[in-house]
Task: structure prediction
Amino acid sequence: MRGGFAGRMMKENPEEAYSLRNLNRSHLGLLLHYLKPYGFHLAAAVAAMVTATAATLTAPYLTKIAIDDYIIARDLQGLQWIALLIIGVYALLWGAFFLQSYVSGWIGQRVVAAVREDLYRHLQRLDMGFFHRRKTGDIMARVTHDVNGLEEMVTGGFVHLLSDFFTFVGLVTVMLWLHWPLALVSCITIPFILSAMKFLGKRMRRAYADVQRRLAAMNADVEESLAGIRVVQALNREAVNTGRFSRLSWQNLKANLRAVSFFALLFPTMNVSRVLGESLVLLYGGWQVVEGTITLGVLMAFLAYVRRLFQPLADLSQVYNTYQSAGASLERIHQYFQLQPSITEPENPRQPEQGFRGSLAFDHVSFSYGTEPVLKDVSFRLEAGQTAAIVGPTGAGKTTLINLAARLYDPEQGSVSMDGIDIRDISLNTLRRTIALVSQQPYLFPGTVADNIRFAQPEASDAEVRRAARIVQADGFITQLPQGYDTAVGEEGVTLSGGQKQLLALARAVLVDPRILLLDEATSNLDAHTEHLIQKALEEIMADRTGIIIAHRFATLKRADHIFVLDQGEIADQGSHAQLQRRNALYRELFARQNQPAV
Result:
């Protein structure tokens, strides 16, 4: 591998090096890295938490003083002061809780936004093989649902965990100080609670991981069904798709119910343990009051402390549930961050001093998407300014060939070079501006016609956009649109015909002014009139440019300097149209099939 995401990020932004070095260590380490810039704010939240803990410990003890020193002594004035002091403690508790919650939420929102942005940036850099292997719905689930799943954990998980821990330790310490035998009685049920949390926790983690998988499968099904809604309705597949989605939805529901059932067991366990603990304190503590060993104030303080003692444990169960759910999401996000793109920036990019002229060569190139080879030992060379046409039956490897030329994939064997330089040694930014690809099914983004033409060249002026449109013969239909170049194209260009979308894709490529232009059946969806215009435009488009054209329409191939016949991943023959007509049976068959009269 010639590089990687981590290496590039460390080079581009040294401050990011820490997180990306730790990606291979722990998915929890990834989250801690995102928290690192907010150390001051975390400290403020912890300070607020400590204040809240101190107030929580103080209030019951003030109640003990009120009973033993003032109520029993009938000292109303002292009782008034204690009451005011208790009110002040609870006011301080309110302010501390507010500050803790606000700062935690402030941190959480920023961490979640940063994770989502970095994950999206990372996905943009992954190679086409990644998107070929994974469903769009699953990818979307990780960027949206899984990242959102971190919010509750980051927003309050860590601070609440610390708060509950210190509160629990403080309560036990104060109770032991007041009366250690009664404190030990109060803690009898705690080992049972911890065992239950450990037992249920493992099952909750597996259950939440299953929930995430089921949700991703459901999202993928929705995305695929909506993307192909025209085909679905045209072939009357609505009922079939609805049935499949219902099954996926039911599986997701069962996974959620299983996770909820484990979580639901925690609260009854906590409540039963709390009531049992209070009952033991009341029984033993009441006996101690009767015996005169402790005062009534101590017993009342203990009852208040016991109620608070189980609250941190209840909160810990909630945090534990949040951790199980968020942990499953974090693990799925971490899996994506660990993926390294196979298409990487070269460590030492190369470029001719005079710039690229545009010669292109395949040298013994082989490639496969799986076990079956798609291209086998392909070699050819195009000089700068020459045009090659690739013909062959479906599945011959034509699209794969130009994908390799555009470096959307890297060959498994051999090399693709431009002006004698392996394209893997050319910076991706330079390569993308030197080689442009127009695919058979061009994609238009939501926005205006002009936005789509200048997509790869955002700084292009309106005049440059119109010039590119005129070159590809698109200006005529654009000016007839309701708002001309400012007309919105809709989702995926739904307001335009297939031919119009291809014309805009051609204009987009021309605007970049590449030295090499790759056309993957870019005229296949054009009507006869538009195709005639495109044939004229190609003369200007291809002037002084190197080009590879894949086309089933042989009229497109007339101006090609070389025609290559590709069959089963190999170059079966090459030559001019007349030469191939004479000596190549496959070429004659393809030509005859293209030119047979319609019936």
Remarks:
- Residues 1-25 have pLDDT under 50 and may be disordered.
- The domain at 360-595 is CATH 3.40.50.300 (Rossmann fold).
- DSSP finds 20 helices and ten strands in the chain.
- The longest strand covers residues 373-382.
